[in-house]
Write a structure and sequence with these properties.
This protein has 356 residues and is α/β, with parallel strands linked by helices. It is built from ten helices and seven strands.
Amino acid sequence: MPKISSDTLWEQAAAEVLSREAEGGEEDAGETLSERTVFLMGSKSGGKTSILLRCLDRDEPSKPTLALEYTFGRRARGHNIPKDIAHLWELGGGTSLSDLVRIPITAASIRSLSVVLILDLSKPNALWATMEKLLQAAQKQLEKVSSQAQQAQKAKHQTAAHLAARVLPKDYPDRELISPYPVPLLIIGSKYDIFQELDSDKRKVVCKTLRFVAHYYAASLIFTSIKSESLISKTKSFFSHLAFDLDRGKTVCCDSTKPLVIPAGSDSFSQIGSPHTTDVDITSLRAKNPKDLWKKVYERVFPQENTGEQRELKDPARDPQYSEPQIDAMRAQKDQELDQYKRNAAKSWKGLELET
C-alpha cells in the first residue's frame, strides 16, 4: 500500500503506475502501457462536452461541465496487449475558472500532454478574448511546471531534455518567425453551421485570424459542427492523433468559404497573407508585433465583449450552470438572516450613548 503523503490522489496514482511499470509486472518488456493526457478548454457553452463525447463514440446526452471534469478513453492495440489510455480533462466556465489549469497540467502529465482549445465560431465578439486568456493561462502553468521539473532533474544530475520546448523540423514553414506552443495544440472552431450564416467578409476575418494564430503557435486548426457527421469524423481524427497517436488524415482545406482543416505545418504566412481589412488603416494601429497587429484588426471588426460578467461569475456558487435548488434556497435564507443581523447590529451601535 503506497505511503500516504501530501501529494494529491492523482499524483499518488500516477506514482503507483510508474512503480508497477518499473517492476515489470506480468507484462512483457515490449508491451508497455501507453498513456497520454489531453486537456480541453474553450468558450463557455461552446460545445466542448458534445465534441468530446462524439470523439469517444459515446452515445449519451451532454451536461454542463462542473468546473473541471475528468474522464478517460481506451484503445486496444491487439490481442493480449495493454490498451492505450488517454486521460481527458475538460475545463468548464469559459475563462472564469482558468486558475484550474494547474490541476491537469503537472510534472507527471507534461511529458505526454496535448491541449485542445474549442472556440465558439457563432460568437466572434468573444472569440479573441477567450482564446488569449485561456492560452496564456495554460502556457504560464506549462512553463512553471517545466521549470520546476527541470530544476528537480538537474538536482538529481539527470537530463531534462524531454521537458524542453517543442522542437520542430528544420523545414517547418516560417520556423524562425513563429512561437510554438510548449505542447501540441489543436484549435477547434465549433458551431460551424451557425458561423457559415455570417457575412462573407466577416467570415474571412475570422478564418484568416485563426489561421494566423494556429500557424503562429504551430497548432492544427479545424472547424466543426456536431450536426455534420463528416466534420465530426475529421475532428475525431485530429483528436485521436493527440490521444492515441493515430493518423490524423491528409485532408487540408484553407478556403474560407468551406470548413477549415489545416494540420500543423500545412500553412504559411505567405499563404495566409495580411490581415483582412476593408476600412481599417493598418499603419494607424501602432502594433508592437505581428500578433498584436492581427489582434487590433480583429477587434476593430469584432469589438470584444465586456468581461465584467466573467469576473462576476468567478464565484461558482453564483453561476447558474452549477445551480442546486435545495442548497441555493438554504443559501438564500442564510444570506437573508445575515443581512438582518447586520441591520440589527448597526441599529444597536447607533443607539449607544458613548460616555465622555
